[in-house]
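Sequence, structure tokens reproduced for reference:
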Amino acid sequence: MRSIRILVLRLAKENPSWGCRRLHGELLVLGVRVGASTVREILKEAGIDPAPERNSVTWASFLRSQAEAPLACDFMETATLSGVRVYVLVVIEHGSRRIRVLGATTHPSASWVAQAAKNLVIQQRRRQGSGVRRSGGLGRRPLKARLT
């Protein structure tokens, strides 16, 4: 019982926004069989609110948390004048708020996305190594997209 108490208090300390229900669920995922009422009692005895008031995440704190991630990527779908759907792979660098278009294709595949990511990493390393920031463009060798 002592080890369960230590684990509950550790989880509560590391995750202050979690209430007793969430802690109970996480303990079950870890394979610890304990009742929800036991978790509640452990928290109450330790002077921790079993159901902390959760404030919604403010926009500023959301942006700060996202800025820690160096990159985010997604596909953007567009259509050509002839009606062909084209998928554009886009990356945003959170620190600089720079948006990069890595390429476009009508048939995105895992290998195509992996190659585009590798090209981006190579460009980032070149830029960091030289200490010079180019103003735009995809570098010397842009990803060749096959539009068929």
Notes: The chain has a mean pLDDT of 81. The first strand starts at residue 71 and ends at 79. Residues 110-130 form the longest helix (21 residues).
